[in-house]
Amino acid sequence: MQNGALTGIRVVEFAVFAAGPVIGKQMGEHGAEVIRVESVHRPDGFRLHYPPFKDDRPGLERGGTFAIFNNDVLGVTLNLKDPRAVELAKKLVAVSDVVIENFVPGVVERLGLGYPSLKEVNPRIIMLSSCNQGQTGPRAEQRGFGSQLTSMSGFTHLTGYGAGEPPMLLFGPYVDFIAVGFGLVAVMAALDYRRRTGKGQYIDLSQYESGVQFVIPALLDLQVNNHVPGPQANRDSRAAPHGAYRCRGNDAWCAISVFSRQEWEALCKAVEHPEWAADARFATFEARKLHEDELDRTISQWTEAFAPREVMEKLQAAGVPAGVVQTVGDLFSCPQLAHREQWKELPHREFGHYAFEGPPFVLSETPAEVRRPCPLMGEHNEYVFGDILGLSKEEINRLSSEGVLA
Amino acid sequence: MIMTAENVGDRQGLLFPYRVLDLSDESGFLCGKILGDLGADVIKIEPPGGDAARKVGPFPAGRPDPSKSLYWLSYNTNKRGITLNLEHPRGQDLFQKLVCSADFVIETFPPGRMEELGLGFQKLRELHRRLVLVSITPFGQSGPYRAYKGSDLVAMAMSGMLSLVGEPDRPPLRVTLPQSSMWTGMYAAAGALIAHYHRELSGSGQQVDISQQAGQLWALANAPAFWSTNRTVPQRTGCRIFGRSMTGATMRAIYRCKDGYINFIIYGGAAGQRSNEALVGWLKEEGLATESLLKKDWSRFDIAKSTQAEIDEIEMPTAELFHRYTKSEFLEQGFKRNMLGYPVADARDIMEDPHLRERNFWRSIHDPSLGHTLKFPGGFAIFSEAEAGPVRPAPRIGEHNAQVYREELGLSQLDLVELQVQKVI
Fold it and tell me: How many structural domains is chain A composed of?
């Protein structure tokens, strides 16, 4: 824990679901001490309402989604409806570097934990507020979830089988996780600024505005060409073949994308159909684009005889970009992800063992590490209120029995 | 807190003291843009003739022109641009000089290629111990697939993302606009800043190794949790949401409306209760609420135990209701009624959204290559201490050669001509 890049930073989260907590958890993997404030009166939706639950038996400590979003954080309980709990929260903020919250705008202010109040107890604090549409503007207070905000941010409209067909959903709250990545960037930039200048700050992150960063070419296309881009299945204007091709097996597919003449010729050779390269319908990129349906059928006829992995290996050996359409289960046996230690099994009281998700990048000198399973409700009350805030055992017991640490 | 002119302090960006050398192709261009949006001095280094991604459309009127790729222009704002041939020994030499004044280098070469050019991490580190090198590749710097070729589609496939999108009996789908370079670029920036934080404390830089495959994984949201918890595998379910009920019931998410589609989902929990009650109220006003819906006690509704029949009964009149409204009417009604749900917006809906206008989200930037003033999205967040977001348009090929090579490296005009003749720049 001592040699992570963020060792020495303390983060307090007044956060729920994904958009807040996944930022903190990633900082925790790099050595930050992250304190997740929860309450038994309003447990996280992922503890209570959303599967998967271990063995399909719901329970506060059995939510798999809560687990995967909350490793490497300390769990404490505070009933923020009680003013004594708010005071304790402020004491925590006073000895912390970063606060992350993702409630609907106005909630932290009503709790007495808005930025001006926190700045009073800690002028150097960096506070990130992440919400659907930002802290200001006519719809600031609209409640919403990422699964739907993904649609308002343009992604759903760009996903589908083509004209005349309904748009297709991305899995889960896609845009929440864009906001998580940008939230992490924002906090890190603010920490550097504070190191240089001594100043903390407030960050208003709109998940919608974060999401729109991922679709800029569509916005420019509209402005320059008056063209509203829509979905084109898996087609790509600069590649052919380009798609997911059915392979041998149940719902088994391999993605193939051919961008250059060299790759096309290599493909024809690798699949032992040199005649395709000479076929007038497929010989040039323009011809392949013109006959793309036939091209896809031809490629499929070949891929259907092989398992996806065989297709990938044959084509990659020839220098053609190809990849198995891995299922979520496949990710846990993928040799490349295993090499990067993407998943880390840790023991947990209710799950037995649980494979947590590590960070998307590897740092050569200070590699991150998944060290701590998701916390049980209030698991670290004693450490946080005792060791960090200096409360005695008796005080902690009293505040627990009086419903403050709850 | 509300940001006003008074409380937005320093107009210089948060990262203004730092310099970034951006050697990346499209798989990394967002990383440099993010650091530039935060105020860093980002120098895009293109091979003579320009980055290959300049050949990627859309183009004005569909006519390819390397100075007018809207794709490239989207993600190279806030960068200065120089050309440099790294294959040439003099190019390598110039690059080493530039590295000494840089804080970050972003590169997207296949693993091992930088070493072949004499510019591997160890070598750069000898020159500059504090350097943070951000290396972006399809699968990573090491491991069994390190030499595999990648693309947006391949990254989507190998990350599991593709398997979760599309109809169950049809091919899995990607998003038509490439997304893997977005995820990778965003997390590359996060990794760079974490390494930077450590460098400022320890004095020692490091390499950030990010793969397109791993960079995409958080786009799967909680899908991996299904495997970790119960060894089950989420599947693609078209326009419906899977995994909310243990009975296997799926919830419809996409509804047709008057002028497009709406994303509305029956939710559980406190937020769902409010939203579902508001829906029934609206159905009642429109004469569409069934007897059993009117009698339903939403405080007892448990999404995790809901059955398909129960869900279908709610969804049928809802479909009829939404058919009566446009996307923007739904957005207005949903907000007023405190219902969850948003329209399926296209580029025009986003550009015209009054909410974004009210927040001063758009930045008007004149692009001389296009001869247009375009609205670009502003910063990904609003910071109380500094501006963030695009200010300058993407560079033309070699636009800042003179500025960088003459003013900063001290080369003469003659040197520049010679370098051009030798095809170094």
Answer: 2
Q: CB distance from A401 to chain B under 8 Å?
A: no
CB-based contact A323 B155, cutoff 8 Å: yes
Domain match, B321 and B265 both = yes
Q: Which residue has the tokens 């490349």?
A: A336
Is A234 contained in some domain? Answer: no
Q: What does the pLDDT average to over B88-115?
A: 97
Please confirm, yes or no, whether A176 is among the known catalytic residues: yes
- Boundary residue ending a domain (A331, A358, A373): A331
* The total number of structural domains that make up chain B: 2
Inspect the interface and report whether the beta carbons of B165 and A169 lie closer than 8 Å: yes
Given an 8 Å threshold on Cβ–Cβ distance, is B380 in contact with A210? yes
Residue A65 in this model has a pLDDT that exceeds 80: yes
C-alpha–C-alpha distance, residues A152 and A155, integer Å:
8
Instruction: Please identify, among B344, B366, B390, the residue that sits at the C-terminal boundary of a domain.
Output: B344
Spatial separation of the C-alpha atoms in residues A368 and A359, rounded to whole Å = 7
- What number of other Cβ atoms are within 10 A of residue B113's Cβ? 14
Is the same domain home to B263 and B394? no
Interface with B, mutate which of A168, A182, A251, A353 (most B CBs under 10 A): A168
Is the preceding peptide bond at A241 cis, omega within 30 degrees of 0?
Answer: yes
Taking the Cβ of residue B122 and every Cβ of chain A, the question of whether any pair is shorter than 8 Å is answered with: no
Residues of B in contact with A114 (CB under 8 A): 1
If pLDDT is split at 50, 70 and 90, which confidence band does A381 have? Answer: very high
pLDDT tens digits along B299-313: 999 988 999 999 999
Q: What is the pLDDT of residues A234-263, one digit of tens each?
A: 999 999 999 999 999 999 999 999 999 999
Q: B329 is in which domain, residue-wise?
A: 239-344
Interface check B53 vs A, CB under 8 A? no
- B241 falls in which pLDDT band (50, 70, 90)? confident
Predicted local distance difference test score (pLDDT) of residue B11? 66
**Minimal C-alpha gap between A121 and chain B (Å):** 16
Q: Alpha-carbon distance A305 to A298, whole Å? A: 12
A226 in reach of chain B (CB within 8 A):
no
Q: Do A190 and B234 touch (CB under 8 A)?
A: no
B348/A185 touch (CB, cutoff 8 Å), yes or no: no
How many Cβ pairs within 8 Å bridge chains A and B? 553
In angstroms, the CA B139 to CA B180 distance is 12
Which of B15, B158, B303, B365 to mutate: most A Cβ within 10 Å? Answer: B158
Tokens for A225?
Answer: 């060409």
> Is A406 part of a structural domain of the chain?
no
Kindly report the backbone phi and psi dihedral angles of residue A361, in degrees, each rounded to the nearest multiple of 5, phi listed first: -130, 155
B8 touches A: beta carbon within 8 Å = no
Which one of A272, A305, A331 terminates a domain?
Answer: A331
Are residue A117 and residue A26 in the same domain, yes or no?
yes
Structure tokens at B252: 């419809």
Does a structural domain hold residue B349? no
**Predicted local distance difference test score (pLDDT) of residue B269:** 84
Give the one of A219, A254, A321 whose C-beta lies nearest to B149's C-beta.
A321
Q: What are the DSSP calls for B269-281, one per residue?
A: HHHHHHHHHHHHH
- The pLDDT of B148-155, averaged and rounded, is 98
Whether residue B311 is found in the same domain as residue B165:
no
Residues A250, A202: one domain?
no
Residue B8 belongs to a domain:
no
Catalytic residue among A176, A204, A221, A251: A176
Count of other CB atoms within 10 angstroms of residue B7: 12
CATH of the domain at B72: 3.40.50.10540
Q: Do residues A111 and A49 both lie within one domain?
A: yes
A32 class by beta-carbon count within 10 Å (0-12 exposed, 13-18 middle, 19+ buried): buried
Whole-angstrom Cα distance, residue B311 to residue B251?
7
Q: What is the CATH number of the domain that holds A290?
A: 3.30.1540.10
Range of the domain at A196: 10-213+340-401
Mark whether A389 and A358 lie in a shared domain: yes
Mutation test of the interface with chain B: which of A220, A250, A254, A366, choosing the one with the most B Cβ atoms within 10 A?
A: A220
